[in-house]
TrEMBL record:
Keywords: Cell cycle, Cell division, Cytoplasm, Septation. GO terms for cellular component: cell division site; cytoplasm. This is Cell division protein ZapD. The gene is zapD. SUPFAM superfamilies: YacF-like (SSF160950). Interacts with FtsZ.
């Protein structure tokens, strides 16, 4: 099945985008070719653009602290595995400590590096990082792969606590949801939320159905509409019934 995820508020939308970017970054930095490491660096700039929002770090600290307090209430519960609980509390506390040690805004260190700033400013121009625009960057790309990787690892290191915090928060949200079977009649599904507030919607649909869910929600109702793609890949509405799994997640 294919899993589609839809954020139901701005905070989760930001975290999902950063999760996607960190995953892309990890892929490219793990490769050896200069173009792969160029893609990793450009992705790092995208991460910094989002991470530098003034309220992101504070929101993550607040959420992790709230989760730590909730987890601590389970201590002594005979139905909870003590070792696993304590290990997870330790993980949350390490993530909290690391976030608090980030000086200023996440990604600020990239702006303070004059050489990286020159690459960043040129990268928004189509073809702006050509060899004649940035000869020093062109020379850097001719370093051996391990040297380039060491440099990139150094530049991403101050953002790693952010990545770890995002992994914990999104993991907790996903684990809080329970999948249920649903049917989109003639490609459309609606569900009343009866006052419940959710942060993330997951839709799982069989790959062989070749349909694409489009979802939206407000505080009263959620909608899922299915489309398919024709020869020129333009989406068009599905007029048949579509079975799927629906998960609503909330921290």
């Amino acid at each position: 099945m294919i899993l589609y995820e839809y954020p139901l508020n701005e905070r989760i939308r930001t975290l999902l985008r950063l999760e996607e970017l960190f995953g892309r970054f990890a892929f490219f930095v793990g490769q050896d070719q200069p173009l792969d490491h160029h893609a990793a660096l450009i992705t790092l700039f995208e991460i910094a653009d989002i991470a530098g929002r003034s309220d992101l770090k504070a929101d993550l600290i607040k959420e992790l602290d709230r989760q730590r307090q909730t987890l601590q209430t389970y201590r002594g519960n005979p139905d909870i595995a003590t070792d696993a609980l304590e290990a997870f509390i330790d993980e949350v506390e390490r993530a909290l400590s690391a976030l608090n040690q980030i000086p200023g805004k996440p990604g600020q260190h990239l702006n303070e590096n004059e050489w990286l700033s020159s690459i960043r400013s040129r990268s928004v121009i189509p073809g702006g990082t050509c060899r004649f625009d940035l000869p020093s960057y062109y020379a850097w790309r001719h370093n051996v792969a391990e040297q380039r990787r060491q440099d990139i690892d150094k530049w991403v290191a101050p953002l790693v606590p952010l990545r770890d915090a995002i992994t914990i928060v999104l993991g907790l949200a996903r684990e809080a949801g329970h999948a249920s079977k649903a049917m989109a009649q003639q490609g459309s599904y609606q569900q009343m939320l009866t006052g419940r507030v959710y942060q993330l919607m997951q839709v799982r649909v069989a790959t062989d159905l070749r349909v694409i869910p489009e979802a939206s929600a407000n505080k009263y109702m959620l909608w899922v509409r299915f489309t398919t793609q024709d020869g020129d890949l333009k989406p068009r509405p599905v007029d048949s019934d579509v079975p799927f799994l629906l998960t609503l997640c909330n921290l």
